[in-house]
UniProtKB/TrEMBL annotation:
Organism taxonomic ancestry: Bacteria, Bacillati, Actinomycetota, Actinomycetes, Micrococcales
Annotated organism of origin: Microbacterium horticulturae
Source organism, top-level taxon: Bacteria
Name of the protein in its database record: Fpg/Nei family DNA glycosylase
Sequence ranges assigned to domain Formamidopyrimidine-DNA glycosylase catalytic in this UniProt record: 2-119
Transmembrane spans: none
InterPro entries: FPG_cat (IPR012319), FPG_N (IPR035937), H2TH_FPG (IPR015886), Ribosomal_uS13-like_H2TH (IPR010979), Znf_DNA_glyclase/AP_lyase (IPR000214), Znf_FPG/IleRS (IPR010663)
Amino acid sequence: MPEMPEVQGLVAFLDERVTGLQITRASVAAIAALKTYDPPIEALRGASITGVTRHGKFVDIATDAAHLVFHLAKAGWLRWYDTLPSTIIKPGRTPIALRIALSDDSGFDLTEAGTKKSLAVYVVRDPMDVPGIARLGPDPLDPSFTRDAFAALLTGKRTQIKGLLRDQAVIAGIGNAYSDEILHAAKMSPYALAANLDDEAIDRLYAAMIETLQDAVATASGKPPADLKDAKRRGMRVHGRRGEACPVCGDTVRSVFFADNSLEYCPTCQTGGKLLADRRLSRLLK
């Protein structure tokens, strides 16, 4: 799933290339991906793009007519073309959900792999009309998001820190991959309770979060969409590295599996050598 650093990379790429251009065509190939009807998507035709910004994991393409907002979800991506193909999109026979054509003959497709379709596209007058944006927590890289602001979010939260970092209503933009990376950098168990963290642990976690995300944003900066996924994978130290050696201590990176995802961690660095129970096996034993 694209997370805040990759989405920021997409935003920077698009903002540089599309601002000032007009949208000449907006073609929906997967009607289920379009979550709004007023304004209609036809309102984008002829609209001039005024800028591209990010809200958490949402991309917001602002025009003088409306905002085109999209969330790539778990398996969505953006495919950029310097010259847009002239082929006709056939609904149901392609991974393409939306095609945007621009006035200089460039454009992009929003695509989604797999059978579980979660990619979401909105055409709205105000980004806050998108429910997912309206309920976002603070952006962790906003200058106003200080260590004390972070500590205030943790106060009284009897929630495992892994889940809290991923909760978009608490902190915007962090998902499964970067929460693994942040917790590894902080040398903290994913099962630690937020409310139980002392000042030293909060300092460590906040510093790890900011440094991890800043480094990832810097890595994504300047890369075209086609290269962002591979850059993300190469930068991971524990996420997606099950069975490999931890780059810090050399212990074997382990996984805990859930219904539709997993977390990765280093026992030596994060849990005092303790192996966390595999939730799939725990369910079978009940």
